[in-house]
Design goal:
binds iron/sulfur cluster, three-stranded antiparallel sheet, about 10% strand, about 170 residues, alpha+beta, Alpha-Beta Plaits, two-stranded antiparallel ribbon
């Protein structure tokens, strides 16, 4: 008895659902319907792969591939937000239904990193490495390791005096 008004109301109302794909609803603004990538702008940083909560993105920098499983994607849009070059976006369209799972792989060209040159690398083959002149000058200016420190000299002096006194006494 308690549910009678609700039952009567639902009998008189049209269904809340649509017979998609025969009936397609107009997408509303900022609708996240399909993930799109501009692979030519992708720098293969893997930020999208790390942030994806459903782990449906795989980025391979060496092979230059960006892969996504659209059937695992939950269309949260995190990858779009974190992409540093903004090459990911969401299209406001409804994805077409499919009867089979297909792989979505994009092939791009990852940017090459320049190798940092060390002084060793810079020297041409067969030539001796160039010494750092400032280091050599500092070495010259520094006191020799065998030189006796002034404190040590001061300690030595009384002992030397005693020795001379003993020698004089011996002569007498
Ligand atoms: S929209 Fe969300 S679930 Fe889909 S690929 Fe991007 S981060 Fe992953
Ligand atoms: S975050 Fe953007 S630039 Fe980085 S791998 Fe993903 S799609 Fe490419």
């Amino acid at each position: 008895m308690l549910f009678t008004p609700t039952v009567v109301k639902n009998l008189l109302k049209k269904p809340a659902t649509r017979k998609y794909p025969f009936e397609v609803r107009e997408p509303f603004p900022k609708y996240r319907g399909e993930l799109v990538i501009d692979i030519d702008r992708c720098i293969f940083c893997s930020s999208c792969e790390r942030k994806c909560p459903s782990q449906c993105i795989a980025v391979d920098r060496d092979k230059g591939t960006w892969q996504c499983d659209p059937y695992a994607c939950i269309y949260c849009g995190y990858c779009v937000d974190v992409c540093p070059v903004k090459c990911l976006s969401m299209k406001d369209v409804h994805r077409k239904p499919s009867t089979e799972k297909t792989e979505w792989i994009e092939q791009g060209t990852p940017p090459r990193h320049k190798k940092k040159e060390t002084p060793k690398d810079a020297a041409p083959k067969g030539t001796a490495p160039v010494l750092d002149k400032s280091a050599a000058a500092a070495e010259e200016a520094a006191p020799a390791a065998t030189e006796v420190a002034p404190e040590a000299k001061a300690e030595e002096r009384p002992a030397a005096k005693d020795k001379k006194k003993d020698e004089k006494k011996g002569k007498k």
